[in-house]
Amino acid sequence: MTVSTESQGPTHPAPPNASPSLVTPSIRRRMACWLYEGILMFGVVFIASYLFDTLSQSRHALDNRHLRMAFLFMVFGIYFAWFWAKGQTLAQKTWHIKVTSKTGTSISQSQALLRYVLSWVWFIPPLAAYSLGVPATQVLVLLGGWVAVWAILSRFHPTQQFWHDALAGTRLVHFDAGKK
Predict the structure, then answer these.
(1) How far apart are CA 150 and CA 140, in angstroms?
(2) CB-based burial of residue 121 (10 Å sphere; 0-12 exposed, 13-18 middle, 19+ buried)?
(3) Residue 79 — pLDDT band, cuts 50, 70, 90?
(4) pLDDT at position 178, please?
(5) How far is the C-alpha of 112 from the C-alpha of 105, rounded, in Å?
(6) What is the enclosing helix (H) or strand (E) of 170?
(7) For helices 136-153 and 124-131, what crossing angle results, to 10°?
(8) If residue 98 lies in a helix (H) or strand (E), which one and from where to where?
């Protein structure tokens, strides 16, 4: 899949102490990548759930529900920390986005893990509402609204980064594989 960067909206400059080649992708492109990442995660969930069911002898998806969620949280953490420390997930490669440090260098496994934990801020309000018994349809509306708010809040960051990136000391940049 080839993605044209011409119609992806404005990009934002790098901070003064960073390499001049660090350009922040548009919010539209980052959110499209985020949605694509969600679709790709279905495969990760399928394989991890199959492994969990095999090891735990579960016969129903609701068996060991909390243990399953904790297991998936760890699998997702390993998946994202591994690929972010290498620079990109498959979705990020498709959309020409790379995770770097503030200065454009590769990030460490621990920094990638911190980014993963902080990225769950996107989901805290909907998860809290769901755990308090709010109906699923209202939780989905809350999720959509909260994701929109979180994305819009990136407009207030000097380089238009998501706030979990700012807190983790990372940034998303445009990456053209041909120019390495």
Answers:
(1) 15
(2) middle
(3) very high
(4) 61
(5) 13
(6) strand 170-174
(7) 160
(8) strand 97-101
Count how many residues are written for the chain: 180
- From CA 172, how far away is CA 23, in angstroms rounded? 8
pLDDT of 45 above 70? yes
3-state secondary structure (DSSP) of residue 22? coil
Alpha carbons 124 and 142: distance in angstroms, whole number: 11
> Cα(31)–Cα(44) distance, rounded to whole angstroms?
20
The backbone torsions φ and ψ at residue 18, rounded to the nearest 5 degrees and listed phi first, read: -95, 165
pLDDT surpasses 60 at 153? yes
Cβ atoms of 98 and 28 closer than 8 Å: no
Go through 56-65 and write b for each residue having 16 or more CB atoms within 10 A of its CB, e for each that does not. Answer: eebeeeeebe
**Bridge partners for 174 per DSSP:** 97
3-state secondary structure of 88: coil
Asked if pLDDT for residue 14 goes beyond 50, the answer is no
